[in-house]
C-alpha cells in the first residue's frame, strides 16, 4: 500500500557541529594518479562538468538510501529508503520539485526499476528475499516473487525487456531473469558469487557483473544463460559502467578507492585512476564522453580523451553518504539520493551536465 507524502515530522535529531551537506556544489578536492591535483572548477561555475540545479526534500525519511529508478514520461524518481525504521520507496515528482508518495511494506528495498513499456515498478527487497511489482499509476502492489538471499542490484535489457536481479544462496550467486511484461521470474543464471553492477551489451550477448567479495569481474552470456569468463582484479569492485562503442568497461572499487578501466575485447585492465570513497554507482555519459561516480564523500567526474586516456578525477561535493544515483541521458541529468544527516533532510539532488 502507499501513503501520501504528507506525514507529520518527528523530532529533529541533535545538530551536527559541521554539516557538510551545506557545501552543495563546492569542490572538495581530489588527486589523480601520480599525485598531481586536478583542476577543480566550482560546481555551477563556467566549465563545471555538473551543476546542482535542484534539491528535493524528503522529510521524515531516515537511515540509508539505496538505488533509484526513473519514470521519464511521468517525471518521477523512485528512491529506495532502506533504513531499519524506514523500509519504504519514496516517490518524487522532479518537475514539481516535491515528494508525492511513499510506498510502504518494503523489506530492505535496494534495486529499483520502472518499466515505461508496461507501466510497472519493480523493487528488489533484500531482507524479504523477493522482488515486488507495483502498478505504475496508483502504486498498488501486483505481486511479490521469492528469490533467495539479499536481492539487490538490477539491470535492464531493452531488447528483450528482461530485468536481471542479483541475489545469492549458500553456494553461489544468481541472477533472476524477470519478464517485465508478466512480472514473472522465468529463469536463473548462476555466478561465482552474488552479482552486482549489471551492465548489458547491446551489440553482443554479454553481461558484465561485479562479483561480491571477489578480486575479479564476471562475464555472462545471456543467450547461453551461463557465466563464461572472469577477469582478474587487484581488489573487489562495487559498480560498473560501459562504453560499448570504444569497448571499455569501468569498474569502481571502495578499498582502495579506485576506478579501473578494462578493454572488453581482451579482458585486460588498461588504466587506473583515483576515485571517491564508498562508491555505489557509476555511469558513462556517451554524449559528453564522461564518467560519473557517486560515493559517500562526493561525486567524481572524468573526461575520456580517447579509449585509453582519461583526465584525473574532478571531485565535487554532493551530500554526506550520497553514494547512489541514476544517470538519465535523455535529460542530461544525474539524480543522487542523499540520506538525512543531522538537522538536514533526506533529499534527491539533481545535477545537470551542461553541453
Describe the structure.
- The protein contains no helices and 30 strands.
- The chain has 355 residues and is mostly beta strands.
- The protein has a five-stranded antiparallel β-sheet with strand order 1-6-5-4-3, with no helix packed on it. Strands 23, 24, 25, 26 and 27 form a five-stranded antiparallel β-sheet that branches. The protein has a four-stranded antiparallel β-sheet with strand order 2-30-29-28, with no helix packed on it.
- The radius of gyration is 19 Å and the shape is globular.
Features:
about 350 residues; mainly beta; globular; disordered N terminus
Q: How would you sum up this structure in a few lines?
A:
This protein is mainly β and 355 residues long. Strands 1-6-5-4-3 form a 5-stranded antiparallel sheet, with no helix packed on it. β4 and β5 form a beta hairpin.
Amino acid at each position: 500500500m502507499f501513503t501520501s507524502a504528507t506525514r507529520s515530522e518527528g523530532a529533529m535529531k541533535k545538530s551536527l557541529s559541521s554539516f557538510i551537506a551545506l557545501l552543495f556544489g563546492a569542490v572538495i578536492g581530489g588527486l589523480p594518479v601520480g599525485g598531481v591535483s586536478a583542476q577543480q572548477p566550482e560546481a555551477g561555475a563556467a566549465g563545471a562538468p555538473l551543476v546542482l540545479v535542484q534539491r528535493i526534500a524528503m522529510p521524515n525519511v531516515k537511515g540509508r538510501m539505496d538505488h533509484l529508478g526513473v519514470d521519464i514520461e511521468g517525471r518521477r524518481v523512485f528512491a529506495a529508503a532502506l533504513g531499519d525504521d524506514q523500509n519504504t520507496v519514496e516517490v518524487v515528482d522532479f518537475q514539481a520539485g516535491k515528494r508525492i508518495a511513499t510506498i510502504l511494506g518494503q523489506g530492505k528495498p535496494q534495486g529499483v526499476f520502472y518499466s515505461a513499456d508496461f507501466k510497472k515498478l519493480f523493487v528488489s527487497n533484500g531482507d524479504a528475499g523477493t522482488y515486488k511489482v507495483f502498478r505504475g499509476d496508483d502504486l498498488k502492489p501486483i505481486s511479490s516473487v521469492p528469490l533467495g538471499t539479499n536481492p539487490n542490484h538490477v539491470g535492464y535489457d531493452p531488447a528483450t525487456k528482461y530485468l536481471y536481479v542479483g541475489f545469492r544462496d549458500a553456494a553461489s550467486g544468481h541472477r533472476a531473469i524477470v519478464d517485465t511484461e508478466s512480472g514473472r521470474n522465468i529463469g536463473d543464471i548462476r555466478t561465482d558469487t552474488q552479482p552486482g553492477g549489471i551492465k548489458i551489451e547491446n551489440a553482443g550477448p554479454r553481461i558484465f557483473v561485479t562479483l561480491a567479495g571477489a578480486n575479479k569481474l564476471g562475464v555472462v552470456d545471456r543467450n547461453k544463460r551461463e557465466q563464461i569468463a572472469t577477469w582478474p582484479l587487484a581488489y573487489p569492485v562495487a559498480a560498473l559502467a560501459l562504453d560499448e562503442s570504444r569497448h571499455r568497461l569501468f569498474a569502481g572499487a571502495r578499498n582502495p578507492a579506485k576506478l579501473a578501466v578494462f578493454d572488453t575485447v581482451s579482458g585486460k585492465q588498461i588504466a587506473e585512476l583515483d576515485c571517491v570513497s564508498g562508491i555505489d554507482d557509476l555511469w558513462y555519459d556517451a554524449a559528453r564522453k564522461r564518467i560519473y561516480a557517486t560515493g559517500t564523500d562526493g561525486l567524481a567526474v572524468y573526461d575520456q580523451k580517447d579509449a585509453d586516456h582519461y583526465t584525473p578525477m574532478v571531485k565535487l561535493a554532493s551530500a554526506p553518504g550520497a553514494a547512489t544515483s541514476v544517470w538519465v541521458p535523455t535529460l542530461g541529468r544525474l539524480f543522487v539520493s542523499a540520506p538525512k544527516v543531522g538537522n538536514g533532510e533526506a533529499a534527491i539532488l539533481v545535477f545537470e551536465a551542461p553541453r
